[in-house]
Amino acid sequence: MASISRNAIAFVLGVCAAGPALAQSAERVAAHADWSVFVASDPKECYIVSPPKSSAAKRDGQAAEVQRGDIRLFVAFRPGENVSNEVSFTGGYPFREGGAVTTEDTFSLAGFTAAVEDAEARCR
Asked: What is the pTM of this model?
């Protein structure tokens, strides 16, 4: 279980807002087990993404039914901005301001290293 600070939540929400734009302009170029590699050309960006293998929403420590969008974990490379290995996460819904966030979102590491190395090589 991990706690996320309010600053981290603000960062994640910013990434969430950019996520759809990235997905529309990027092309899936490879898959490594549970991870996909995407490349966009203008500006140059490479990233890997994976959905969770499992996730559980809780409210006040109890299982809760929630409606949510896609949950994804990303690692991005943007050579034009001198960014590499930038990790971001979309939670599928906005987090409540001022509230504590805990996660039991489980992601597979199968193919992670190969996907990161592939994306990094494509963005050199």
From this structure: 0.74
